[in-house]
């Protein structure tokens, strides 16, 4: 019998998980990246939510369910459950990645990295910092679990076809699937052609190096929203992806993992080739790195109209009133004690 609120919540959560995922395929998605790149809007669309989009607070949890076709009775139909972790935009809350990047989740985890294409001077800084943080946390988690590390390596090699991939020795793939989404394409499409070409080739190089998928997205373009949602559904529930691929820098990129190569990015080999550092230098020569905000604390949700919850707000006011009365009494008691005449 649970003795406190935390034990009750744990038992309730375990019970719900059993009810939701009997014979189902559980997956996890971690969403990180630049601020205001369209992450929360896409998530709302994926979840079928029509309420106004609220800014993400630190790290928020959602889940999505999908029934699995089976011969079971309707009441016993198993469901796939996808746990979704949405981390506040920017680089200040990376320590919270420890929660979703646990060994328990890694075999069915996909990381979605959202980048703001409209701010190219922050693009490399954000990308580089997030990649380093993700790799460091995965390394720490896997260092004590060699069996899991071996399993993830096998899954990665199979997913990317590394045994027959000529780029294998020049790649440094992440141990779990990664999808890089370049947001605000509606602004990016108006950049000068040569600048668009540089940004597209640089991001393609990063994607090949990591073994990641790459696509461009805008929350004002229904076709691009549909494409991005297709990747979410694929990684959440295993639905097949379309065969569409777009590598033309004059169009929104759409490049599933394993379908691109260093040779396709730089057909002649060029001076840059597959060198990560040379691409970094070439990009910085055109777009000198601009530091991003490392930590921006969100406004207090208790006083923010975007997070109104009538029942919780009422209880909060009652508690605030009780606390205020206690402070007044203590204040009065101290004043009274100070004013007593001494003998």
Automatic annotation (TrEMBL):
<dbReference type="GO" id="GO:0005930">
    <property type="term" value="C:axoneme"/>
</dbReference>
<keyword id="KW-0966">Cell projection</keyword>
<keyword id="KW-0243">Dynein</keyword>
<dbReference type="GO" id="GO:0035735">
    <property type="term" value="P:intraciliary transport involved in cilium assembly"/>
</dbReference>
<keyword id="KW-0969">Cilium</keyword>
<dbReference type="GO" id="GO:0005813">
    <property type="term" value="C:centrosome"/>
</dbReference>
<dbReference type="GO" id="GO:0035721">
    <property type="term" value="P:intraciliary retrograde transport"/>
</dbReference>
<protein>
    <recommendedName>
        <fullName>Cytoplasmic dynein 2 light intermediate chain 1</fullName>
    </recommendedName>
</protein>
<dbReference type="GO" id="GO:0045504">
    <property type="term" value="F:dynein heavy chain binding"/>
</dbReference>
<dbReference type="GO" id="GO:0005868">
    <property type="term" value="C:cytoplasmic dynein complex"/>
</dbReference>
<dbReference type="GO" id="GO:0036064">
    <property type="term" value="C:ciliary basal body"/>
</dbReference>
<keyword id="KW-0217">Developmental protein</keyword>
<dbReference type="Pfam" id="PF05783">
    <property type="entry name" value="DLIC"/>
</dbReference>
<comment type="similarity">
    <text>Belongs to the dynein light intermediate chain family.</text>
</comment>
<keyword id="KW-0970">Cilium biogenesis/degradation</keyword>
<keyword id="KW-0206">Cytoskeleton</keyword>
<dbReference type="InterPro" id="IPR027417">
    <property type="entry name" value="P-loop_NTPase"/>
</dbReference>
<dbReference type="InterPro" id="IPR022780">
    <property type="entry name" value="Dynein_light_int_chain"/>
</dbReference>
<keyword id="KW-0505">Motor protein</keyword>
<keyword id="KW-0963">Cytoplasm</keyword>
<dbReference type="InterPro" id="IPR040045">
    <property type="entry name" value="DYNC2LI1"/>
</dbReference>
<dbReference type="GO" id="GO:0005874">
    <property type="term" value="C:microtubule"/>
</dbReference>
<keyword id="KW-0493">Microtubule</keyword>
């Amino acid at each position: 019998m649970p003795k406190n609120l935390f034990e009750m919540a744990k038992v309730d959560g375990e019970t719900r998980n059993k009810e939701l995922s009997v014979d189902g395929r559980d997956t996890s998605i971690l969403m990180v990246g630049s601020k205001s790149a369209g992450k929360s809007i896409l998530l709302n669309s994926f979840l079928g939510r029509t309420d106004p989009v609220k800014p993400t607070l630190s790290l928020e949890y959602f889940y999505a369910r999908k029934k699995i076709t089976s011969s079971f009775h309707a009441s016993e139909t198993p469901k796939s459950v996808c746990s979704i972790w949405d981390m506040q935009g920017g680089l200040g809350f990376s320590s919270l990645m420890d929660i979703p990047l646990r060994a328990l989740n890694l075999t069915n985890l996909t990381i979605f990295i959202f980048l703001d294409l409209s701010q190219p001077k922050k693009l490399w800084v954000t990308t580089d910092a997030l990649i380093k943080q993700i790799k460091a946390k995965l390394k720490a988690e896997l260092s004590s679990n060699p069996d899991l590390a071996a399993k993830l390596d096998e899954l990665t090699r199979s997913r990317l076809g590394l045994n027959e991939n000529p780029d294998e020795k020049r790649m440094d793939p992440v141990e779990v699937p990664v999808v890089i989404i370049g947001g605000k394409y509606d602004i990016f499409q108006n950049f000068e052609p040569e600048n668009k070409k540089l940004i597209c080739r640089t991001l393609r190089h990063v994607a090949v190096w990591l073994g990641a998928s790459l696509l461009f997205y805008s929350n004002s373009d229904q076709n691009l929203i549909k494409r991005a949602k297709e990747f979410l559904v694929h990684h959440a529930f295993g639905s097949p992806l379309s065969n569409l691929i777009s590598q033309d820098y004059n169009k929104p990129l759409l490049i599933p993992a394993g379908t691109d190569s260093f040779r396709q990015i730089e057909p002649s080999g060029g001076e840059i080739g597959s060198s990560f550092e040379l691409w970094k230098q070439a990009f910085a020569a055109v777009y000198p790195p601009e530091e991003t905000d490392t930590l921006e604390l969100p406004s207090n949700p208790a006083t923010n109209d975007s997070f109104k919850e009538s029942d919780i707000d009422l209880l909060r006011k009652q508690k605030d009133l009780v606390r205020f009365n206690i402070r007044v009494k203590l204040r009065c008691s101290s004043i009274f004690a100070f004013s007593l005449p001494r003998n």
